[in-house]
Design brief:
The chain is of the alpha+beta class. It contains 2 helices and 6 strands. It is globular, with a radius of gyration of 18 Å. The two termini are 29 Å apart. 7% of the residues are buried.
């Protein structure tokens, strides 16, 4: 099924930002995923392209105040990304926050990959 054919599915429309995974699965049940769905691109993945899997990643959580200042935390030994996200939601106290995962071993090769949230002062391109 091509991406444009998703528009012909009964009840299908570009999913709202917080559409639950269960709802997405219900809407595309029986449909081979691939192509573009809303602004998201989906393609089959080849696990041979990955050198290793990190079983205990480090997460970073940034909490931004209204003035743009950030309080930053590095979280390790978390059971799952869901555990970190739950902690961040409780700790946020109404502040905007971003959740990142640390990639790379050597300090000069470390990068943060955004998993959730958006820095309030950064414009989307």
């Amino acid at each position: 099924m091509t991406a444009s054919q998703f528009d012909d599915l009964p009840g299908w429309e570009s999913p709202p930002r917080r559409l639950r995974n269960r709802e997405i699965r219900r809407r595309v049940r029986g449909v081979r995923l691939g192509g573009t769905i809303g602004s998201m691109e989906v393609a089959h993945a080849d696990p041979r392209a990955i050198a290793a899997t990190v079983e205990e990643p480090a997460y970073w959580v940034y909490f931004w105040t209204e003035t743009g200042a950030a309080e930053k935390f590095r979280v390790t030994r978390a059971g799952s990304v869901h555990e970190v996200l739950s902690w961040a939601e409780l700790k946020s106290q109404g502040r905007t926050f971003g959740l990142y995962i640390e990639a790379g071993k050597a300090i000069e090769d470390r990068h943060l990959i955004r998993l959730s949230g958006q820095e309030p002062n950064r414009r989307r391109s």
